[in-house]
Amino acid sequence: MTHSIAQAAEHSGLSIDTLRYYERIGLVDPPARDSGGRRTYSDADLDWLVFLTRLRTTGMPIKMMREYAQLQHVGPVTRGARQQILLDHRASVRERIAELESCLGVLDHKIDLYAGLMADEQTARGATA
What we know:
By secondary structure, this protein is mostly helical. The chain is built from 5 helices and 3 strands; from the N terminus they run E-H-H-E-E-H-H-H. A hairpin with a 5-residue loop joins strand 2 (32-33) and strand 3 (39-42). Keywords: DNA-binding. This is MerR family transcriptional regulator. GO terms for molecular function: DNA binding; DNA-binding transcription factor activity.
């Protein structure tokens, strides 16, 4: 099945401009064209776009994504290198998650502190009424 650039953008969550940019920098192979010269994307193309979107969402730099894409084009001989990129990035994502969980703990503590202070204020107001 083929998809238009608008459908590819909607499916991947990327803008049409971003799809064209990814094509220009080599993250995405130039898509096939229909008889009118419009880009058409296969299901495999959409899967790749979703994967790229996940990498960006997890904070992978474009440079690293390009390295991964270039290795993918070389073929099976690069599987180990591609796996290492993903292992390294996963470690980085896990570090970021731990950092965010720590920050969340601080926010939860502060929110609970304010909730307690406001409850005390309401109790004090009730006692003086």
